[in-house]
TrEMBL record, chain C:
Its main location: membrane. It is found in: Cell membrane. This is Glutathione ABC transporter permease. Pfam families: BPD_transp_1, BPD_transp_1_N. The chain crosses the membrane at residues 12-30, 101-122, 134-157, 177-197, 232-258, 278-304. It comes from Devosia elaeis. It comes from the Bacteria.
């Protein structure tokens, strides 16, 4: 046996494939597996809402107002006699749609802004950073409320509101990451060999800043769902009579002495979905971006 | 292995005196995802009063874990320590946590590698020293602060009284380590454990700290356990030495014996890596001796031919290169000061020649390299490659010119894009400059991998699958893919362990022979510089204060700064240990100047052919 | 230090202008025609003209901008379109309720959250840590308006222990009215602060200087509080600022749930009634709070971190 530290080429086991890795992240711990299962169930419900819902979520009935749960209406009815379960099932479509669309859009725009600011620096950076810093001073929910206060509710407005509220966060992460990756010797080496700027950005910068962006994106799915629910609860989100978990609770509170089941059902649905996305988001963050793991 | 580990199990300093520390068969394991892993595999040694024992080894050898095991500072839930550790006859491993607390800081003190992170950023220096005194009930309140002041004075911190209220961030690295020493020695412990206390420091500051530890040891009569990776430091401080490799002691003896006739080839390789300063050969750069891992013998490199093209024009000519950075002031005011990072630096580099830029942190050597590469734009001066001034080139022509001058960086782990396989990484420069087809680029990459000592079939692997030394080889291959004339190597081997370092340096010399490369070698590591260079230039506060052939500059230093630098470099001569050398207590000066500062006109004189020294001013007259 | 404070204050002024400009852009330019946005598509031309006249929208945009700035600086926010009450008066009536709710919630959140976090960090991977994790998972997921609704239904409606709406008049009744809403917000805050304290403290306890403290022979309590928690207070104090702001934004929904007066209610009601001037006033109050609280956070940092003081 040799005692000399002559380097022997280390050959670590081959990198596991994408699906193996994804399975390990999503099903690794029991609570993450539970969360993944919940998300799958909710996505299933959202897709097959028309099949699963026992009634039309908008159909009113004067004769069965504020009913408690029964064989006929498992979660009872609301003050317009609409079936609560059906409204919850359709409401899942709203939540998940906003939950996915806004973070993706925000990640796209935010990353673009952040990379441009971080890579080129100078006056562009100072301008972008100043606005980002300012907007970051606002909690996302407050920013969303204030923008929605001005713009009003409705599908596209909510998408815009939540996206704008999230852009600064992504831009900050992308900018900070770009600044640090730009300092990496491999980027300097590329500059030193004469590689062109667009190629450096696409080939050397962006792939190396994606991990925290993707991690942030999954965590913010949960935030987007919460914010949509809050806005709808405040009456500046999804416009009634379209069902959304937020406005189901709003309607429930408006008839406080009626059935509590709309509130309980929608509240538990929001909590479960947000909890599940938080757990999965944490797991993805821990796997992709160990530096920020808590 | 078995034959080698049969050296005398423990070396007892003096049978009559009871040892301060007695370690027997110390074994430490860590709980990992794969279960318990043994890191320290049975270490034994004694340390007597006033004695210094060095534990030497490379990263991962278990030397620091040994120190932490003795202090019982490892997380008890994640680690297990077996064997026996006796402090003045008392078994430490069996003490309760409370009893152990009374010993830590009171009977043994410890200092660490990173003094900055080892000090609490929110407490003043005075509070932190006073804390240890009050914990052990020696002093409290104002008396403790008074004693802290006295201790700061003892570790030779000027103006101790005013320093008491300073926070760690406002002290220099050397000062912080002095504070750590004051803290560790506050209760007059029997044993001081020093874990790589000078590794993060510049060489002149290292000399000061080593000197200080030796002086305090004589005054206090404590034993010292000194952990280091540097055999030069061992020769400076240690009476006896234990060499560790992969958790085991491969050799243990008095330091003199180790340096004279070490039996273990690993020990000999470590010793060979220490600079001999001025005693080196006059024949130009020579290979490091390398251990053959099959036979266990040392292979000395063959004689190298002279690679320098003495007749031709220099390939790289740098003239009056200057780079200054403004320090931003307030919102509406101009810069509050200016860093004179590089100030009128001039040198020539001929084909096949290696010029080393040496100096301590902040001297401007790396900035010089980056300014030459135009990774940062210098203020003024000329950088010519084969007669073309690259500072005058526009973006496109500069891009073409980059073919001729390439760079290798310090951190091998950050020098390769983790998401691109190494074959592509090596081929990228080739394809960027459209030097051939994809197929040719691939063949080129394979060929280069072979030339840097790796296997061509590794091309499809990703950087994460390589060790530090291998990555540095890959970076060299990438730089070579453009067939450059000059390579700027910025601290390129500094992050590598001693034995790996030697191999990479030898590779660089071989490549110089094969391709007629010129190196601008930027380093603070005198051992490597001595081996690899033809010429050396010493930088201080942004200026070259002395330059010339290695043998001339190292053998006959003229400038006071060069002399101080040379005096500070540890040499492999244990005999020098007993002497207390005159070490200046100066801090490394800062190159930050007022905005209106005008650098003085400098004169140079030639001592011997090619050996040029800057005339120095009054500030150097002692 | 005084110089740093002045610098920070000076820095807040451009921030304030930027905020005002953004609010102006949002209110006047983004919705297209603010008059149409306020009155709805069914508005008659003379109603629109009258609205523009009243709101000063019939002058060039740059003049509107300066009028707007001038109005804000002189605390003249205009009058409500519905009741003709000065907006400043409306804000003055509602602000105390929002402030008392926010502060009470923060206080309860801090008192519960930080000790929970310390307990979790010092008993890592044991029962208290597990309990903390479950608590924080729920706290991060449950919407405050749902939690508020459940508390309201259970303790006010069914058990009758607390009033179901309003904010009370005398001190005791105000506290009585305050308890449930504050508890709602505090639950979420405690989860956030508990988790933050746990993370920050664990990170600090892994630092080299904590090892130094142990090497000095310091007792565990001293290590945890004097070296650990004291240093962990840096990230925690940032977290306090953030959670003060998020409590403020949470107060909007909670005021609605408990039918309490407050700035959030004022804003939401104004949106429902398209009371343009009041919306603008409400937005400005929240934006002003954000700027103010961020400034305060910076100042707190100066006090706790000596490294900032020298700069």
């Amino acid at each position: 046996m040799s005692v000399i530290a002559e380097e022997t080429p280390r050959v670590p086991p081959a990198e596991p494939g994408f699906f193996t890795k994804a399975r390990k992240i999503l099903l690794g711990r029991p609570e993450t597996a539970f969360a993944t299962g919940m998300i799958v169930v909710f996505i299933f419900i959202a897709i097959f809402a028309p099949v699963l819902a026992p009634y039309d979520p908008l159909a009113q009935s004067v004769i069965k107002i504020n009913r408690l749960p029964s064989q006929e209406n498992w979660l009872g009815t609301d003050q317009f006699g609409r079936d609560v379960l059906s409204r919850l099932i359709y409401g899942s479509r709203n939540s998940l749609l906003f939950g996915f669309i806004s973070p993706v859009l925000a990640a796209l725009f935010g990353t673009m802004l952040g990379v441009v600011a971080g890579y080129f620096g100078g006056i562009v950076d100072r301008l972008i950073s100043r606005v980002i810093d300012l907007l970051l001073a606002f909690p996302e929910l407050l920013l969303a409320i204030l923008i929605a206060a001005v713009l009003g509710g409705g599908f596209w407005n909510i998408i815009a509101v939540i996206t704008v509220a999230f852009i600064p966060g992504f831009a900050r992460v992308a900018r900070a990451q770009t600044l640090s990756v730009k300092q990496e010797p491999y980027v300097e080496a590329a500059i030193a060999t004469g590689v062109r700027t667009p190629v450096i950005i696409v080939r050397h910068i962006i792939p190396n800043i994606m991990a925290p962006i993707v991690a942030l994106m999954t965590l913010w799915v949960a935030s987007a769902i919460r914010i949509e629910a809050s806005l709808s609860f405040l009456g500046i989100g999804t416009r009634p009579p379209n069902p959304s978990w937020g406005n189901i609770i709003r309607d429930g509170l408006n008839s406080l002495f009626g059935s509590p089941w709309p509130i309980i059902g929608a509240g538990i649905a929001i909590t479960l979905v947000v909890l599940s996305f938080n757990l999965v988001g944490d797991a993805i963050r821990d796997a992709l971006d160990p530096s920020t793991a808590r | 292995m078995s034959a080698m580990s049969n050296f005398a199990e423990t070396v007892v300093p003096n049978a009559d005196v009871e040892p301060v520390l007695s370690v027997r068969d110390l074994k430490t394991s860590f709980l990992t995802s794969k279960g318990w892993v043994e890191i320290v595999k049975g270490i034994s040694f004694d340390i007597g009063p006033r004695e210094t024992l060095a534990v030497v080894g490379e990263s991962g050898s278990g030397k620091s874990v040994t120190a932490l095991s003795i202090m019982r500072l490892l997380d008890p839930e994640m680690s297990r320590v077996d064997g026996s550790v006796k402090l003045a006859g008392r078994e430490l491993l069996k003490l309760s946590p409370g009893e152990m607390r009374n010993i830590r800081g009171r009977q043994m003190g410890m200092i660490f590698q990173e003094a900055m992170t080892s000090l609490n950023p929110l407490q003043t220096v005075g509070q932190q020293i006073a804390e240890v005194l009050s914990i052990h009930g020696l002093y409290s309140g104002q008396a403790a602060l008074k004693e802290a002041e006295r201790l700061l004075d003892r570790v030779r911190i000027p103006g101790a009284a005013s320093r008491l209220k300073d926070y760690p961030h406002s002290l220099s690295g050397g000062m912080r380590q002095r504070v750590m020493i004051a803290m560790a020695l506050a209760c007059k412990p029997k044993l001081l454990i020093a874990d790589e206390p000078t590794t993060a420091l510049d060489v002149t500051i290292q000399a000061q700290i080593l000197q200080l530890i030796k002086q305090l040891q004589q005054e206090e009569g404590m034993g010292v356990l000194f952990i280091t990776h540097d055999m030069g430091v061992v020769a400076e401080v240690a009476d006896r030495t234990v060499v560790m490799l992969q958790g085991k002691a491969v050799e243990a003896d008095s330091t003199e014996v180790i340096f004279e006739r070490a039996e273990n080839p690993y020990t000999r390789a470590l010793i060979a890596a220490v600079p001999k300063l001025g005693q080196g050969s006059q024949k130009g750069p020579q290979h490091f001796p390398i251990l053959d891992r099959k036979t266990g013998t040392i292979v000395t490199g063959r004689e190298r031919p002279d690679t320098v093209r003495h007749d031709a024009e220099p390939v790289l000519r740098v003239k009056d290169l200057t780079k200054r950075f403004d320090i931003p002031g307030g919102l509406f005011s101009g810069p509050s000061g200016r860093v004179h990072a590089v100030e009128k630096v001039s040198f020539d580099l001929r084909a096949g020649e290696t010029l080393s830029l040496v100096g301590e942190s902040g001297c401007g050597k790396s900035t010089t390299g980056r300014a030459i590469m135009r990774l940062i734009e210098p203020q003024s001066g000329e950088v010519s490659i084969e007669g073309t001034d690259i500072r005058a080139l526009d973006k496109e022509r500069m891009r073409d010119m980059r073919r001729h001058i390439q760079m290798i960086f310090q951190d091998p782990y950050a020098s390769l894009n983790p998401r691109i396989n190494i074959g592509e990484a090596i081929a990228e420069p080739f394809l960027t400059h459209k030097l051939g087809t994809r197929q040719q680029a691939r063949e080129k990459a394979m060929d280069l991998l072979e030339r840097v000592g790796l296997s061509p079939d590794m091309a499809s692997r990703f950087p994460a699958q390589f060790s530090g030394g291998q990555r540095q080889r890959i970076c060299i291959a990438r730089a070579l893919s453009l067939e450059p004339k000059v390579i700027v190597a910025d601290e390129s081997v500094s992050a590598l362990d001693v034995s790996i370092k030697a191999q990479v340096v030898n590779l660089m010399m071989d490549l110089q022979e094969q391709f007629g490369l010129s190196y601008l070698f930027i380093s603070h590591d005198m051992a490597v510089v001595e081996r690899i260079s033809h010429q050396v230039a010493v930088m201080y506060l942004g200026e070259i204060v002395e330059k010339g052939p290695v043998a001339a500059v190292f053998g006959n230093p003229q400038h006071p700064y060069t002399k101080r630098l040379m005096a500070a470099v540890p040499v492999p001569d244990p005999a020098r240990r007993k002497q207390l050398r005159p070490v200046s207590n100066d801090e490394v000066k800062s190159p930050i100047r007022p905005v209106d500062y005008v650098p003085p006109q400098r004169d140079y004189r030639e001592i011997s052919p090619g050996h040029i020294v800057q005339a120095w001013g009054d500030d150097w007259k002692v | 230090m005084a110089r740093y404070l002045l610098l920070r204050l000076g820095d807040a002024i451009p921030t304030l202008f930027l905020v005002l400009t953004l609010v102006f852009i949002a209110m006047r330019i983004l919705p297209g025609d603010p008059a149409l946005a306020a009155l709805g598509d069914g508005a008659l031309p003379e109603q629109l003209a009258d609205f523009r006249e009243r709101m000063g929208l019939n002058v060039p945009l740059w003049q509107q901008y300066f009028n707007f700035l001038g109005g804000v600086l002189t605390l003249d926010f205009g009058r409500s379109l519905l009741t003709n009450t000065p907006v400043l008066q409306l804000i003055g009536q509602n602000l105390p309720y929002t402030i008392e709710l926010t502060l009470a919630a923060m206080l309860m959140g801090i008192v519960a959250g930080i000790p929970l976090g310390v307990m979790a960090a010092t008993n890592r991977n044991k029962a208290p840590d597990g309990g903390m994790r479950i608590f924080s998972l729920i706290g991060y997921a449950i919407p405050d308006f749902f939690l508020g609704a459940i508390l309201l239904i259970t303790f006010a409606l069914n058990l009758g222990w607390f009033p179901i709406n309003g904010a009370g008049s005398d001190f005791v009744s105000r506290l009585h009215h305050l308890f449930l809403p504050a508890l709602t917000l505090a639950f979420v805050k405690a989860a956030f602060l508990g988790r933050l304290t746990r993370t920050s403290l664990l990170e600090v306890l892994g630092k080299d200087y904590v090892r130094t403290a142990r090497a000095k022979g310091a007792k565990e309590n001293r290590v945890i509080y004097k070296h650990g928690l004291r240093n962990a207070m840096l990230p925690i104090s940032t977290g306090l600022g953030l959670s003060l702001l998020s409590t403020l934004s949470g107060s909007v929904a909670v005021e609605l749930v408990f039918n309490r007066p407050g700035i959030g209610r004022l804003l939401i009601d104004a949106i429902a009634q398209r009371d343009y001037a009041v919306i603008q006033g409400g937005v400005l109050v929240f934006a002003g709070f954000v700027v103010l609280i961020n400034l305060l956070m910076d100042l707190v940092y100066v006090v706790v971190d000596p490294r900032v003081r020298v700069k």
